[in-house]
Specification:
Layout lengths: L3 H4 L7 H9 L5 E3 L4 H11 L6 H8 L2 E4 L4 E4 L10 H5 L13 E7 L4 E5 L10 E5 L4 E4 L4 H10 L2 H4 L8 H6 L5 E6 L14 E6 H15 L4
Antiparallel strand pairs: 1-2, 2-3, 3-4, 4-5, 5-6, 6-7, 8-9
Length: about 220
Amino acid sequence: MRSVEELINNTDPGWIYVQEWIREATNKVAVLPVDFMRARDALYKTQVTTRSPMGAVVYMSGGILIDDGWIRILGSGSNRLPRTLPDWNYGKSIQKWGDVPSFLLIADDAIGGYYLLNGGGLGADAGKVYYFAPGNLEYEPLDITYTEFLLFCFNGDLEEFYQEERWMHWREDVAALSGDEVFSFYPFLWSREGKDINSCSRKAVPVQEQYDMHMSMRRTILPGK
């Protein structure tokens, strides 16, 4: 594994570009404060240089919130978003530090959807981002890179992307949600009865609990996938 010093690029740091994209963003973006001791640890565990946008986000932010926390892009952790990118992947795609992961969970949303960077475990398009959709429990290829994913979060039409999954007064509810929580819905969003989100009851649950439940239900409902 490369040292932190080897991973920090001071000649062409990616954070300069990320900051510029944020300044030009049309969606609401909040960069969470960074603790540099945690950031050094997270960067070392991720083994990505700060020349890349992912390494820059991990090293220079505690995470990034989009639309008052509807989307949470993982960085090196903060009070609002305690999870770091590498620690959230530990036990999922990473079993020991230094592994080359088959995917990386890079972000998630308030309804229990997960954005993953394909390392080869999701398809032949390594380096592209997938969305695990709570409405069908499928990994949906988005055909975008990590950089393009950031630009989608900053400038994309999120109302269209989530057009069936935002309820009345969702912004106020999401703003009060912890970065370690997501909403759980009943009836389940993947069920026929759960297609009208305004008719579903919802409660905040730990994101790990919801992730485990989603993976279990996927194995049950979509065996072999």
